[in-house]
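Before going further, learn to read the protein records used in this course. The integers have meaning only within a learned vocabulary of local backbone shapes. The record below shows the convention in full.
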Amino acid sequence: MKEAGAPVTASNDSTVQAAGCVLWRRSPVDGGLEVCLVHRPKYDDWSHPKGKLKRGEEPLAAALREVGEETGYRAVAGAGLSTLTYMAGGRPKQVRYWAAEAGPGTFVPTTEVDRILWLSLTDARRRLTQARDQALLDELVRSFEHT
């Protein structure tokens, strides 16, 4: 895995570079761990906030920018999580993830993300559309065990 925050260099392949976060907070009701999932109407799916890197943008900066754009929340980055690679639209896509604690913010629906949900880990695991995103929840929990 590349060093966290390292800029992505140009390559000859057509891999789409993206970054995102498993955004978490403590429940205002019981103090339990909650994660934020986003709903994208274009794909009718539930996932972690993520998006493509802009030219010259570092992955961590892109991940935090995407959290803000998609959820309306500022985030404080924590532990680096897995990098997922999969096919999307006929091209390989590589997404680097970080755990990130939610700061202040307010969600405003857009055409890209029309809903967000704050869910317990169990409920988030059930709601996530892609199985590959579920393993990130386990990594989030492990990151808490090491701090």
Notes: The chain has one domain: 16-145.
